[in-house]
Structures are given as structure tokens and as C-alpha cells.
Amino acid sequence: MIELTPNLDITKRTPLYEQLYEYMKNEMLQGHIQKGVRLPSVRALSKYLGISRNTVEAAYAQLVAEGYVESKPRQGFIVKEFDKECLPKPLFQKTYETPKPAETVKQAYDFRYGNIDIAHFPMKAWRACMNEAMDTPPEQLLWYGERQGDIELREQIAHYLFQARGIHCSYEQIVIGAGIHQMTGLLCQLFSQETDTIAMENPSYDGIRTVFANHRYRVVPISLEKDGLNITELEKSEATVIYVTPSHQLPLGMVLPIGKRQKLLKWAEKTDGFIIEDDYDSEFRYEGKSIPSLKALDTQDRVIYVGTFSKVLTPAIRVCYMVLPVRLLEVFQNTFYNYNQPVATIVQKALALFMKKGYLERHIRKMRNVYAKKRQALIAAIDENFGTDATIIGEKAGLHLLVRFRHVTDVSGLVERAKNEGINIYSAAKYWFDPTTSPPPYILLGFGGMSEHEIKEGVRQLREIVRSDFVS
Fold it and tell me: Does 96 have pLDDT greater than 70?
């Protein structure tokens, strides 16, 4: 019997007979099994490989059907002759060498913004809600679901927004999406690249800026003043849509005051424009009362409110939402009538239960205290290790702050040196429309995913790196 040594893996999704067929076909194409060779009998090969006869028969049948093998009475399966030049060539041919992954230093301390505290995730409560959601009748659970999202989840979100953010809306206005980038992509299709210009704060979230650019929108930067958006500059622009983070500007952290909020709303009314309010981390404010959302002040139905569960719960469930102005609902429904809901039905139903049972509210209260302690640990560590050599910016809310070291001008160099020592810190330059225009040398430090001990030790070691620069 010819030697056949296929690597058959029962854990793969590909059936065993397909794995055997592909192996034998490739052996023939490469010339390892020559024309005229008689293949092992079905019984012999199944015994040799320890697989069922049905598996071998199915693989042989496919080889016969495609003309690689013929079945002859009393002789068995014989490899046929075929012209290799006439065989179909793959549509994609690799023309480059895949680079080997570079060796990386294991990072002991990662100040990445966007990381959350997974140690306090309410796994028991979430698992219970997932299990209860599984009891939903199959005709409701095992399908794409409502186009705008699960109705009960949207009702819970509407209730939550009224209680937490002062927003009056109905569940019909709410759309569930799979992350802020996907949601923004939908919004891009409600406007027109030909007639609409989008304004964004400068600096602002570069990820959203990329979404607008990928949809071929003209995006204009609007500078910031000490108290936020420069309204006068916006009024002089040709923008008809603006994306803002008024409750906690990303990345500088200031709060847009009530006077500017009112002017911004008047701008939208005057220009027949719209405001996209990204309220990405409003739950985590550590000083003073919670700031009402811009949407709560919107009497002319001009604000598109966007929220997420990535910071308050976990980004792993991929759930965000937006509240559409009533005037855009029909546009949305006509534009996306043929789209399916992107978020898993089971996740939506579990989240609705999680909110209905009060778990989300309790979790937010708990995490506000947890993150407040981490934030204070970071501020104290910076003060202790750097004193007046460091200036802290935007520390009153959210899960990150900016710091400016008095003696540091080469931020990218500092980031690289810290990385080599096992510390991930991040330049804030990417948030500016043009990072080459020398924005202030800010370092962005996220603290959500680190313990208080890691924060303190990470800053202590960072001090040695920073001071080695200006000492040398």
C-alpha cells in the first residue's frame, strides 16, 4: 500500500472526508502520487487511518467526480493522467514574504486608554442574565431581531437616559449598533457627501475622523478654547454637521459650559444642521454634579445622541446606541430597510435583563468608586514623582488624563524608551488633525485597566526614564 500520512484533525470545522480529499488531491498535483498508481482499498485505508469507511468512500467519490481518479472493476481506484497546465490557478497568489513578528518586550504597565477593570466585572449577574435570556422562545431568540434593536432593550435604555442624563425620548428613536465606528458609518449614510460638511473639535477622536474620511466627507477642524469648542469659528465654517464630546472633551477633558451649549444648539437650528453628541464616558465624573447632556437641552430636535456600554460594562459585548431626532427616523428606516441588526439577539436580551434587574445601575455606582480611587492614585503618583515638573490636564472625569512633563519635548522618543522598559504610555498627538503641527507634548495616561499598585509603580519607573533624559 502506498504511504499516505494525512494530518486529519477532528477539531476542525472542515469534515474529515474533505481533509482527506484535499490531502490526496494536493499529493497528486505535486507529483507525489503518480499517474496509474492504485490507491488503497476503502477498507484498508479506513483501518490504516483509524477512520470510518464512509469517510474514505466520500473522499474517493469526490476525487472520481473531479476526474483525478477512476474506479475500475476488480482493480480499485486508479490515479488518472491530467494536464497540470490546464488546472485552474488560484485567484490570489502571494507575492511577498510575511514578515516575522518582531520580538516585543512584555509590558508590565500599560496606561492604554480604553482598557477597563475586568476584575470587578459582575460575571455572576451577567451569566445569570445570559442563562435567563436563553429561555426566550426560539422564534424570538434565534433570528436577526428587530432592525433597530431589541424593543425591551431600547425601552430600558430610554428609561436609563431619562434617569441618568435627563433625556426625554421614546424607544422608537433608539437604534442599537455594534460599536461607535459601525454606528457612525450608519450616520454617514443619513447625510450627503455632496452637500454636507462635517466639523470636529481639534483635537478629537481620530477613530471617528477616519470613519468620516472613509465615507468621503469633507471634515473641517474647529479649534478649542479654554472652555471648549470655538463657536465663532464654527459659525464661520461651512459645516452642516458637527461631532462633539461636550461632557468630557476627548482628549483634553474640558466640559462645554451651558452658554456654549445653547449657542451650539442655536447654530444647528440656524443652519438646519445636526449635532452628533458622543457621550462616551459621562458616567464617570468625580468632581461636582453630573453634567446634563446636550440632548437634554435640545428643544429643536437637532441632536443625535450616541452612547456606549464599552466603558460602563465591557467592550466585549459590542453594544452601543444612538437616539435619533424624530425628523431622521423616516430617513433611517428608508435607508436601512434592507439591513439586519448587527448585535447578537441573545446579548441584547441579556443586557435588557441586566438593566431591568438593576445590575447596571449598581455596577456603575461601584465602578465610579473604583475608578475614582485609581484616578486619585495616578494623580498622587504623578505629584509625588514629578512635582512641579508635571502638569495634569482633564482629570475631573473619565478614565484617562493628560500630563505634560516640563523637560520633555520629544514625546515619541519618550514613548519608545518607556516601551523598551516595559511601560506603555501614549502620545496624544494623533488626536490633532495634523500631528506634525507640533501640538503640545502631552502624554495620555489611561488608568481603567490597571490596579492602584500598578499605577503607582508604573509612574515611579516612568520617573526614572523621564529624569534620565534631562540629567544626561
Answer: no
Task: Answer yes or no: are the C-beta atoms of 295 and 303 closer than 8 Å.
Answer: yes
Dist. CA 1–CA 12, nearest whole Å = 28
Q: Which pTM was predicted?
A: 0.78
Cα separation of 258 and 271, whole Å?
A: 20
- H or E element, residue 373: helix 359-386
Q: Residue 298 and residue 167: Cα distance in Å, rounded? A: 9
Q: Inform me whether the pLDDT recorded for 30 exceeds 90.
A: no
- For 274, the 3-state DSSP assignment is strand
Cell of 182: 459601525
Which tens digits make up the pLDDT trace of 163-215?
999 999 999 999 999 999 999 999 999 999 999 999 999 999 999 999 999 99
Q: Which CATH superfamily is domain 109-116+362-471 in?
A: Aspartate Aminotransferase, domain 1 (3.90.1150.10)
By DSSP bridging, strand 197-202 and strand 218-225 are parallel
Nearest to 189 by CA among 154, 217, 219: 217
- What is the biggest distance separating any 2 CA atoms in the chain, rounded to whole angstroms? 93
End-to-end CA distance of the chain: 74
Written as nine digits, the cell of 398 is 473619565
Does 3 or 154 have the greater pLDDT score? Answer: 154
What would the grid cell of residue 210 be? Answer: 477616519
Torsion sign over Cα 213, 219, 222, 223: positive
Which strands, in side-by-side order, build the sheet including 303-308? 174-177, 320-323, 303-308, 274-278, 241-244, 197-202, 218-225, 228-229
Using alpha carbons only, give the angle 105, 107, 113 rounded to the nearest 5 degrees. Answer: 135
In sequence order, the 6+-apart residues with CB closer than 8 A to the CB of 364 are: 283, 312
Domain boundaries, the chain: 16-86, 109-116+362-471, 123-357
Do 404 and 440 contact (CB within 8 A), yes or no?
yes
What amino acid is encoded at 270 in this protein? K
16-86: CATH topology is Arc Repressor Mutant, subunit A (1.10.10)
CATH number, domain 123-357, options 3.40.50.2300, 2.60.40.2150, 2.40.50.140, 3.40.640.10? 3.40.640.10
